[in-house]
Amino acid sequence: MRIFSGVKPTGHPTLGNLLGAMQRWARIDQFRSDDPGDALFCVVDLHALTVPHEPAALRERTREVATLLLATGLDPERCTVFCQSHVAAHTRLTWIMESVVGDGELRRMVQYKEKSARQESVSTALLTYPALMAADILAYGAEEVPVGDDQRQHVELARDLAVRFNTRYGEVFPVPRAVRPPAGARVMNLQVPTDKMGKSDDTAVQGIIYLLDPPDSARRKVMRAVTDGGREVVYDPEAKPGVANLLDILSACGDGTEPAELATRYASYGALKSDVADAVVAVLEPLQARYREFADDPATIDKILRAGADRASALADPYVSAAYDAIGL
Ligand code: ADP
């Protein structure tokens, strides 16, 4: 069973990225096979080109995200950590995926609709992003893709494209499926709990906890989180999205106790917020300490990423060659 997932270096990673995806990847790595080629985690830097960007900032963010991946506990001896742009298979397979996907399918993607809304013009890459994402997954024959809820639709499309390719041209790709974490699959902005906590948002930044926020600042953001009317702590994402978000965060930062069960332990919003702040800080502090250790040793990070890219290329090339062959190239 092979697993693939990635994170975009479009901004500073958030608590949403950690709880919905990165923390989960580090845990998967501990109980899956010992073959480092069975779990691949990638800084998807090509995806960052879909929106306007500064080259120097992209390079810095890519380094920050790679360092954070290692700081979460991903062990390069037991999984493969690399940068997407270092492995040519991703772009080689994207063209094949673009020949299989319909433009209507791409235009229907929620993320495309949201990001292109109210823009006079967007890059073609923003539209074709899901074809690149399908290539990311299928190039490794990955079967499981652990992602937060916002990426499920793109994984569904990758699934459809694998089936379509196999039906038209012959069996090449295993059919992947999205895997969601039990809690934290959709962490919401603490100030606008009806919007997801997104790293590239430039509004409501006080509602975004960045993984490298000083712990005091993260604590303040939790204590100032918008809560809902009433006083009772109940888990009701529809009627009380702010409180439900805090309970989700507490569940994902802690031992995984169900949010509804956690709700029964609190008589006030204040007590809940205080425990959420403690739980968030308890997750961030060791993560940041490990981040600083890795950041102080850039040569080791370069070595890990180079070795990861070599291993990833060796795993992807047979799938890409088989796809080229099957399609008549
Ligand atoms: P973004 O730019 O929105 O952070 P990424 O594609 O880089 O998106 O996200 C990397 C991973 O983090 C994906 O699996 C995504 O589903 C997950 N993720 C992003 N934001 C959240 C969130 N607010 N809650 C849960 N998971 C999230």
Could you describe the 3D structure shown?
The chain has helices spanning 15-31, 55-71, 89-100, 103-107, 110-116, 124-138, 152-169, 215-223, 241-253, 259-263, 269-295, 298-327; strands at 3-7, 39-43, 80-83, 144-146, 177-179. It is mainly alpha-helical. It folds into 2 domains: 3-185 and 298-327, 3-Layer(aba) Sandwich (Rossmann fold), CATH 3.40.50; 205-292, Tyrosyl-Transfer RNA Synthetase, CATH 1.10.240.10. The strands form 2 sheets. Strands 1-2-3 form a 3-stranded parallel beta sheet. Helix 6 (124-138) packs across helix 7 (152-169) and helix 8 runs antiparallel to helix 11. The chain starts with a strand and ends with a helix. Bound molecules: adenosine-5'-diphosphate. The site of adenosine-5'-diphosphate has 21 residues, from helix 1. It holds the Pfam family tRNA-synt_1b. A motif ('HIGH' region) lies at residues 9-17.
In short:
This protein is 53% helix and 6% strand. The strands form two sheets. The chain has a three-stranded parallel sheet with strand order 1-2-3. It has a two-stranded parallel ribbon with strand order 4-5. It has helices at 15-31, 55-71, 89-100, 103-107, 110-116, 124-138, 152-169, 215-223, 241-253, 259-263, 269-295, 298-327, and strands spanning 3-7, 39-43, 80-83, 144-146, 177-179.
Q: Which characteristics define this entry?
A:
329 residues, mainly alpha, Tyrosyl-Transfer RNA Synthetase, three-stranded parallel β-sheet, 12 helices, 5 strands, 53% helix, 6% strand, binds adenosine-5'-diphosphate
